[in-house]
Amino acid sequence: MNVLASRPRRLESYVCGSWTTGAREGVPLLDASTGAPVAFIDSSGIDFASTLAYGREKAGPALRRMSFHERAAMLKALGLALMDRKEEFYALSAATGATRADSWVDIDGGIGTLLSYASKGRRELPNTRVLLDGDAEALSKDGTFSAQHILSPLQGVAVHINAFNFPCWGMLEKLAPTLLAGMPAIVKPASQTAYLTELMVRRMIETGLLPEGAVQLIAGSVGDLLDHVEGQDVVTFTGSASTGRKLKSHPAVIGNSVRFTMEADSLNASVLGIDAGPGTEEFDLFVKEVAREMTSKAGQKCTAIRRVIAPRAHCDALVAALGDRLGKTVLGNPTDENVRMGPLASLDQRDEVRARIRDLLGDAEIVAGDPDMPRIVSGNAEAGAFLNPVLLYCDRPFEAKAVHDVEAFGPVSTVMPYDRAEEAVDLARRGKGSLVASVFTNDPAFAEEVVLGMAPFHGRVMIGNRVSARTSTGHGSPLPGLVHGGPGRAGGGEELGGMRGVKHYMQRTAIQGSPTLLSAVTGRWVAGAQTQTDGEHPFRKSLAELRIGDQLVTATRRVTLEDIEHFANFTGDTFYAHMDEEAARANPFFEGRVAHGYLIVSFAAGLFVDPAPGPVLANYGVDNLRFLTPVNPGDTLQVQLTCKEINPRVDAEHGEVRWDCKVTNQNDVAVAQYDVLTMVAKTRS
Ligand code: NDP
Q1: pLDDT class for 651, splitting at 50, 70, 90?
Q2: Separation of 60 CA from ligand 1 center, angstroms?
Q3: Quick one: where's region Disordered (predicted)?
Q4: What gap in Å lies between CA 21 and CA 110, rounded to an integer?
Q5: pLDDT(5) > 70
Q6: What's the fold here for domain 9-265?
Q7: What residue ranges do the domains of the chain occupy?
Q8: pLDDT at position 2 over 70
Q9: 281 tagged catalytic
Q10: Helix pair angle (68-84, 194-207), 10° resolution
Q11: DSSP secondary-structure letter at 211?
Q12: Catalytic annotation on 263?
């Protein structure tokens, strides 16, 4: 369907396997610059209980049958397919008021997040359906009762209720971890910009890459959907604090203990260091960053800088520099390539921001930008939602309330002075919990005091200075690998953060039992579980033949003083504990000269390696290496090598095998313990 050709059009929801329009014609959604209708939205008539049930029953099992790597491959293919279509999204995005640069954050940023999760999922998760959380815990002295925490996908549906400002990124940053975890989702975009989300979901469904029902879309109100959420469902919300609180306290959410993640208003602060006066690189970077955060996406970013905290002595220079820079912002229709800032998403939104500026005027004065007379170079002055960037100054921020409480969700920031570092921290904290803060300083002591003071009140803190100026991702960019969310007023939720975000859609369960049964359940061999030895060296086995618990008990090797001296001279590691009997004896841990830890590891490899070419392709490292007991000359080493975990890759002819390696001495006491990591072919060549 050529969606762009048929504007304005009635948006459709994708529920229970088909695209459907609402029963009524719907509410018109207007182009932010021209006021022309782009689409009509209505979801009346949708059976929301069935939509939830469809996701749970149809898509949930299909997603859970896939391994993490299969889901990661699906996300990658999906991301690449969307990338191919991205110009179509850019064309429609302009109607939301977004410039090309704004749309880049939303569209390329959103697809990039999907691709980043695909790649991190492949690299950081095993190719399994269950995730192990931490190591096994021994619960009995004789080793017959142990425990392992596991994470398995929740069996409900994730309902994502999104804000209007990022119709693509807002959806994809939540979908990526949800789908990777193995959970289906229902996307509910904010109405104002839902036409762009609808187009992207349409293209996603058309790829055929997703199991049916894995992503459903509701264009319009969610009706009674929340009445039907259950204990295995998740609800995530981004938007205003008032709506968030209402949904979080919905009887079905409370009654069924539904996981609820909220990201709401945030009075993000940026602090200029005392050292960063006019003439320093940090001052210039700060001015650039504040102006950028105020104008990109017309300030409609949950992470935008709302409070500018600056040394009192530098405030005049700062206000002048910011006023100058903001005054040069070219405002107009974003389809005009000279335009640097588009309109707000809607006239309602502009009226709302103007009202919030009036609230701020109780505490602050406007020092740059007229909120009523937009200076536009293109677009419709009456029907377009244009607003100049507005800078305010609050001279007594410790006596003020509104500047720390009122979020004007547009190109609006307030400068406030401080005298000492602790005052800057105090002001930042008055936001009562924010998504992000930044500090611009080149003074390590100032950075330490301010960052540690602000950290408990923020989900992310960025330090800007001359060194990172060219590589910094900036104050306002949430990144897939970093936590996005904030305490208190910011909603108390946490999204992204790499694999942390995936775990929000999984249940953590402590499994207790005998080691052999634990291994059977988790797919990872644990100490004390059954082992098997069939005479064949496990390094001769391909992935197809290898089994968890396959074990090799090696021959023994006596360590001599000559070995230790040879190793010391050969490697240059002549540390006294290996070379000087008297000094070694004086050491509280040793009773004389000891073997190097790396000599033990090297001898262990010499004992367990099968040298001939075979399915083992490479050793790519060791994990958790610990030297447990000193090895003295005359001690005898032996190795127990046990196949611990097998991870075939989905897109290669090999996979990873983790081996438990335990090195013991003649008294059967463990002297070293670690995991050996190898690449092994799927079949024998
Ligand atoms: P809302 O809270 O009104 O809407 C957010 C989402 O919730 C939208 O998808 C909306 O759908 C949906 N929603 C609203 N009411 C209900 C309900 N009763 N049941 C289920 N879903 C509901 O916020 P807006 O997007 O309109 O933005 C308003 C303000 O929120 C902004 O001015 C800004 O202050 C703040 N905001 C904060 C953000 C942040 O991340 N910090 C991001 C965006 C906004 P629908 O659009 O169909 O009503």
Answers
A1: confident
A2: 27
A3: 471-492
A4: 26
A5: no
A6: Aldehyde Dehydrogenase; Chain A, domain 1 (3.40.605)
A7: 9-265, 269-474, 531-681
A8: no
A9: no
A10: 120
A11: P
A12: yes
Burial of 632 per CB tally in 10 Å (0-12, 13-18, 19+)? middle
Contacts of 313 (CB under 8 A, 6+ apart): 277
pTM beyond 0.80, yes or no: yes
Q: Is there a common fold for 269-474 and 531-681?
A: no
| Average pLDDT of span 387-391 | 97
Q: Which atom of ligand 1 is nearest to the CA of 161?
A: 9
Atom number in ligand 1 closest to CA 164: 25
Pocket of ligand 1 (CB under 6 A): 161-165, 188, 190-192, 221-222, 238-240, 243, 247, 263-266, 302, 352, 407, 409
Burial 186-208 (b: 16+ CB within 10 A, else e): bbbbbbbbbbbbbbbbbbbbeee
CA-nearest residue, atom 14 of ligand 1: 243
Ligand 1 center from residue 73 Cα (angstroms): 32
Give 58-93 pLDDT, tens digit per residue: 999 999 999 999 999 999 999 999 999 999 999 999
Distance CA 641, CA 136 (A): 18
- State which of 164, 187, 250 you would mutate to test the pocket of ligand 1, scoring each by most atoms of that ligand within 8 A of its C-beta: 164
Find the 160 Cα to ligand 1 centroid distance in Å. Answer: 12
Mean pLDDT across the stretch 530-538?
A: 94
User: 269-474 has which CATH code?
Assistant: 3.40.309.10
CATH code of the domain occupying 531-681 = 3.10.129.10
Closest atom of ligand 1 to CA, residue 163: 25
Instruction: Grade residue 265 by pLDDT with cuts at 50, 70 and 90.
Output: confident
